[in-house]
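Support request, please re-run this one:
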Amino acid sequence: MSTSEPVYVTKPFLPPREAFERYLPGIWERQYLTNQGPLAAEFEKGLAEYLQVPHLRWVANGTLALQLALRALGVKGEVITTPFTHIATTSAIVAEGCTPRYAEVDPETYNLDPAAVEAAITPQTQAILATHVFGNPCDIEALSEIARRHSLKLIFDAAHCFGVQWQGESVLNFGDAAVLSLHATKLFHSTEGGAVVVRDAETAHQLDLHRNFGIHQGDQTDVIGFNAKNSELHAAMGLANLPFADEILQRRRELCERYRALLAGVEGVQYQRLMEAEGYNHAYFPVVLPSEAAVEEVMSRLGRRFIYPRRYFSPSLSEQYPQYCAHACPISESLAHRIICLPLYHTLEDAIQVTITEELAQALGARTGDAVA
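Re-run finished. Output below.
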């Protein structure tokens, strides 16, 4: 099947137009566009309730959310993190005057290897910033124990984790802080946005200060902060999308199950091992292939059909910034050269999934068998 328009790795979910437009008259009447307006407060409260988390602060984007978490927790010095993540994880650490130190990842979960984290700790280490890669929870218990024994702050980059559960509750409830992205490419979004979840009211107060220039009252500042607030228009999109959150999660589960059915029996396809399959949100559909040449062949075949998956995350950050490596990271680098994320979004058509899996199978010299009805 050839597509009539390009198929990219993702496409933003959009609610019915009237669901968004119902918020516009109030914005025009109030002429209150930003600085924690009433819709921002309503969305922040509704998001916290949906995710079942105690102290959530909605901010301008996920990168600023990471910086806010580091600031609110007073992290300086070295921060052990993963090389298999988006550059935003590293850039937030550097922007806060800290030094990232890459530790190796697990070859099956793609998350930080706790043993590698422990081996990377030095007297200068103050925190662990671990990414739940593709929404797959890290070994939270092991990392928490390491952080406790070494008196380190534990922050989770949970950018991909909207709706993810760990041991029956939100994965955002673990660590000293967890950070969520609500960018338009994520399964749930507010066009642009991010959120920080923390455990206690005092840290939440620090978030409030730092996201608003450090202003306490009037023009009095208690700390040097920055502008991480979000707008009423973005809040309107978040509020319009929130009633569809369960539907979005269910649809993505169905799409991922269909991918697996279509790829059943295809040799050379490796899947990420999920820590808790029932609590997973199916944010992405990554596959690891036998070689980089196989990835390039798949990309080429699909590109001729105007279908564009993504080599995500590639290259490994350890290859781009070797000065930050605590130790060599060959597993991360191997994954980065062999991974590909297949298109996954709410309106993805069955026929396109069939085309994608057939081309992938042919590239690997295999057959998909009968298509799933």
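The chain is about 40% helix and 15% strand. The two ends are 16 Å apart (CA to CA).
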